Amino acid sequence: MSSIRSRRILAAVSGGLGFALVLTACSGGDSGGDETTAASGDCAAYESYGDLSGKTVSVYTSIVTPEDTPQIDSYKPFEECTGATIEYVGDKAFETQVLVRAKAGNPPDIAYVPQPGLLNQLVATGAAVEAPQTVVDNIDEFWGEDWKGYATVDGKVYAAPLGANVKSLVWYSPTEFADAGYEIPTTLDDLMALTEQMVADGKVPWCAGIGSGEATGWPITDWMEDFMLRLSGPDVYDQWVNHEIAFNSEAPTAALDGVGAYLKNPAFVNGGLGDVNSIAATAFQDGGLPILEGTCSLHRQASFYAANFPEGTNVSEDGDVFAFYLPGETEDVKPVLGGGEFVLAFADRPEVAAFQTYLSTDLWANNKAIASPAGGWVSANKGLEVANLVSPVDKLAATILQDPNAVFRFDGSDMMPAAIGSNAFWKQSTNWITGQSTKETVDNIEAAWPAS
């Protein structure tokens, strides 16, 4: 990000003007200052698309109220610059309906696609269009090859990333760590050493819950995915997700055993909640709450878990509870498990290409951060200024995503066939935590894999 653009965005935040300053900048004004010059350049960038006044771009997404408000607000600079209007529709049934609409020849102009597998399905309908070169250039500038790969189908780039989330986190009590002299682990060996030290100090360190109605078991799939990345690396992880290696082969078996070293060790779990079997009976929303009671010290769960702590909980580095990055095998290897959305277009009209380009810029990422005063949003865009984020957890997630050593991978179960990712994997993981062996578990999941 240029220093001029950075100053303008940060000034908007510190001055409390929010979008007013950004909008004023975009719509021109006095040409005497650096900020105005940069702002004129922002609007001038859309001149190549022609007169977009009165044009409309339809956006279809799964992001609904109240999370849709910051999204819609973040479009205002684009609308002010171009005179175009963004028609936003959020739908909880998006993942089903967007495919129906694409197949029926009635897709939106742009869809925010939350899974690479769904993106591939939408491209296969023939309704999607390749990303314009301006978008591809922004992807190359602001994201790594890992993100670009998820948006590429048959060698063609179709979409830029939008938002992101981080799952590779461990929640803890900063007060407990300070009082006991514990340090944040930076390797897997450090994590095990910390766990064993807590046991030596008379604690039951880990707490967990995997109860989630028909989806009971999914938190263990996240654990296993994190350990696949850490023990075998991203290439083997990709092979596993795509079933290029069997689910019951050596690497997945080692990953589940690695999880079991924590979750199936009665000395390590289930702090404040019971024994190992209590993990299956505990709702995932409640799994980390014992940290606040001092009966548990560590809980592996995604960044969104911050919302599960009671109102008034200070979630920060010096607060009641916070999180640290689940480390890799070495300090310089930073695998990151998570999710995100991609901006896929179904039309190549100038106004659609212009808006798609705006969403792929560092300017939009920072405008979105400014428009999200309640937090709860982050992007892997390298041009996102961490200082523009409000929530300490969002800042932590952005810092992890922007680490030059970070290698990002999407949640594996979300990309596996539904018969596995949202069925056998969940169910067999639940059986595993309640006593089934690792071998029987991976064998059963492999046997459930669809033949085609």
Mind explaining what this structure looks like?
Strands 1, 2, 3, 6, 10 and 11 form a six-stranded mixed beta sheet that branches. A three-stranded antiparallel beta sheet has the order 8-7-9. Strands 4-5 form a two-stranded antiparallel ribbon. It is about 45% helix and about 10% strand. It has two domains: about 45-165 and about 335-410, 3-Layer(aba) Sandwich (D-Maltodextrin-Binding Protein, domain 2); about 170-335 and about 410-450, Periplasmic binding protein-like II (D-Maltodextrin-Binding Protein, domain 2). By secondary structure, the protein is of the alpha/beta class. It is globular. Strand 4 (about 150-155) and strand 5 form a beta hairpin. Residues about 1-40 have low confidence and may be disordered. It has 21 helices and eleven strands. Helix 1 packs parallel to helix 17, helix 2 packs parallel to helix 5 and helix 12 packs antiparallel against helix 13 (about 250-265).
Structural key phrases:
alpha/beta; signal; 452 residues; globular; Carbohydrate ABC transporter substrate-binding protein; 12% strand; D-Maltodextrin-Binding Protein, domain 2; 2 domains; transport; Bact_solute-bd_prot1; disordered N terminus; six-stranded mixed sheet; three-stranded antiparallel sheet
